[in-house]
């Protein structure tokens, strides 16, 4: 306590002396050259210092000294301040003088507007910038989502530009959970998929989030899955430029990615395959597996990918496909122990409305419908005749007992 108080007093004294000598120089109308940080901090090191408008102009010398720019002189950034008094209007700091690569990339990006997006909008306090590998940095992997989320969340600045809120979805996703709860540095943060300074809209073919580039973007980390996907029919279609085939985010979403074993994912993904394969979806829905799946949210039944695989999806004609006739015993056998050739005659996509594809079923269905129709017609006729007859005997009876019981 005593030591601190003494140091404080000494500091104050020094400041007073410097300020006094500065004033002397100022009054003598000779500007004082200020070289060292300490020269500037004599005044700006006072935590309570504000400018005429009441805006804080204090700089924490200790934090600044520890920051990545701690060895620079104040005037390396505040290039127009060489001494005291200051120029009336201090020029805006140009980070680009030393970091031209980042500045050039930013200029070509969605965040090009330098008023809305100064470097400090992502890097935080200009005097407390740390290397990206330092946990104190605003762009340290674990801090990136919060940094981007300042604007890309409900009520954030991006919302006012008509963009959807992203942060809440992301933070509840498998990646957000891995990052914020498990502290996994290797989990995907905003920067892993979007980049940092050169961020482009997903409609730009050069963007890592452009549809055709997404498998590679996710594949930077999920390498084996990307390799499987590229071998499958969907991956090959995308590689050929057929953008109607699905990429990772069509099935997983970009920001609300769930763990695929979760019930919510298994329940919602069947309709996702079904969005594009409408005919197969409707025939699947007619079958036992789906009927079971829709009863009380039962999730263990066969979903599309349990028979087709999720990533290395192939047509039935491909001998490597799990639904190729030669592989069905193995495919169905994963769940039906003892499945044999006669068991796999069962058709998961049987379509009783299609005469060419399933003639047997078609005629059985036709016969059953005809039977149902004729039985119904017979009983309808029978009921009508019976009604007419009973009315007839009522009228007849009325006549017989003089209308008393009518
Ligand atoms: C003798 C005290 C003193 C010293 C030394 C001093 N300043 Fe200042 N500085 C001030 C005051 C007072 C203001 C507020 C001026 C105002 O309100 O317009 C200020 C304002 C500023 C501003 C903000 C201008 C703005 O637009 O709001 C910057 C930047 C600044 N000083 C940088 C420096 C740097 C860099 C040094 C060292 C090279 C330095 N100052 C040295 C007193 C000082
Ligand atoms: C890495 C560059 C950099 C260095 C080094 C730097 N500053 Fe700054 N300073 C900035 C930026 C950026 C701003 C925000 C205003 C702007 O964009 O011009 C700023 C603003 C200020 C302000 C205005 C109040 C505020 O916080 O917005 C003061 C005062 C100031 N600096 C003083 C100093 C002093 C004193 C030093 C040395 C100890 C210093 N600066 C070193 C970049 C720097
Ligand atoms: C939209 C947010 C954003 C803006 C705006 C931004 N940065 Fe960055 N910056 C980042 C992120 C995120 C990283 C970390 C990149 C990584 O981990 O690879 C980073 C990293 C850096 C690095 C470390 C080297 C590198 O490129 O990875 C420097 C230097 C840097 N930024 C300077 C700047 C400068 C200078 C500006 C202004 C011209 C700026 N940044 C504007 C988000 C931003
Ligand atoms: C006078 C030159 C200069 C200016 C101006 C300058 N910097 Fe730096 N910056 C450096 C130097 C030198 C380093 C340290 C480089 C190193 O250690 O690799 C650095 C490092 C950084 C880093 C950390 C890079 C990493 O490895 O993660 C970031 C982020 C950064 N600067 C951002 C900024 C921002 C934002 C501004 C503007 C407010 C700015 N710089 C202004 C010289 C400057
Ligand atoms: C200071 C607020 C702010 C910060 C911080 C910020 N953004 Fe943005 N971002 C915006 C605004 C505003 C737009 C819309 C730009 C426009 O259309 O003029 C935008 C646009 C985008 C877009 C393009 C959307 C589209 O398709 O048009 C992406 C992607 C994006 N930001 C990602 C990020 C990422 C990733 C980060 C963090 C590294 C980040 N942003 C940090 C405000 C911010
Ligand atoms: C796993 C990869 C991934 C991560 C992590 C990620 N994004 Fe995205 N983001 C994408 C993809 C891919 C798109 C393209 C649109 C789509 O497929 O939905 C996108 C689209 C966007 C858009 C544009 C939305 C629009 O309406 O056009 C913004 C803004 C955005 N992301 C911001 C962020 C922010 C902020 C974070 C971090 C909190 C983040 N993203 C994390 C992959 C990712
Ligand atoms: C920076 C690396 C990285 C990128 C890029 C990335 N991921 Fe991930 N992802 C991970 C990590 C690490 C995990 C594991 C998290 C855990 O288990 O806690 C994960 C988990 C997942 C899971 C859950 C897996 C499971 O079994 O729990 C899915 C699904 C997923 N990611 C899909 C994607 C998609 C789709 C993309 C692209 C839009 C993508 N990832 C981009 C690193 C990444
Ligand atoms: C056609 C839809 C679809 C596409 C496209 C797709 N996935 Fe999947 N993905 C799934 C399904 C369904 C599962 C669940 C598989 C299971 O439970 O057996 C899954 C599972 C996963 C898993 C968990 C590990 C596993 O195999 O169970 C990860 C990680 C993953 N996908 C990432 C990706 C990445 C990265 C891409 C793009 C290269 C991608 N997915 C493309 C539907 C898809
Ligand atoms: C975004 C739309 C889309 C989604 C979602 C989708 N597919 Fe596909 N699928 C296609 C397209 C387009 C093709 C044809 C690719 C080609 O050969 O050019 C295809 C081809 C196939 C084939 C090969 C059929 C044939 O006739 O060659 C199978 C099997 C298949 N998909 C199964 C699935 C399964 C299982 C899922 C869900 C896990 C799924 N698809 C999700 C669009 C989609
Ligand atoms: C119980 C296993 C099983 C399930 C579940 C299943 N399928 Fe199939 N699927 C098959 C078999 C076996 C074939 C090949 C014989 C046939 O066409 O009936 C096939 C054929 C297909 C084909 C045509 C492939 C070709 O090469 O002609 C597509 C597309 C398809 N299924 C999509 C789906 C979709 C989408 C779902 C979920 C809504 C789904 N399947 C659910 C087993 C299954
Ligand atoms: C992911 C696991 C799974 C796969 C793969 C699977 N099934 Fe099933 N299947 C089930 C479940 C669960 C039931 C309902 C419980 C039961 O009766 O065994 C069922 C029921 C059935 C039934 C009606 C009840 C019965 O046992 O006779 C038939 C027929 C059937 N499946 C045929 C197939 C055929 C053919 C294949 C391969 C093309 C197949 N299944 C693949 C899980 C699966």
TrEMBL record:
It comes from the Bacteria. Residues 62-152 form the Class III cytochrome C domain. GO terms for molecular function: electron transfer activity; heme binding; metal ion binding; oxidoreductase activity. The chain crosses the membrane at residues 12-34, 362-388. Keywords: Electron transport, Heme, Iron, Membrane, Metal-binding, Signal, Transmembrane, Transmembrane helix, Transport. Residues 187-225, 248-280 form the Doubled CXXCH motif domain. InterPro entries: Cyt_c_III_dom (IPR020942), Multihaem_cyt_sf (IPR036280), Multiheme_Cytochr_ET (IPR051829), Paired_CXXCH_1 (IPR010177). This is Cytochrome b subunit of formate dehydrogenase-like protein. It comes from Candidatus Sulfuritelmatomonas gaucii. The lineage of its organism: Bacteria, Pseudomonadati, Acidobacteriota, Terriglobia, Terriglobales.
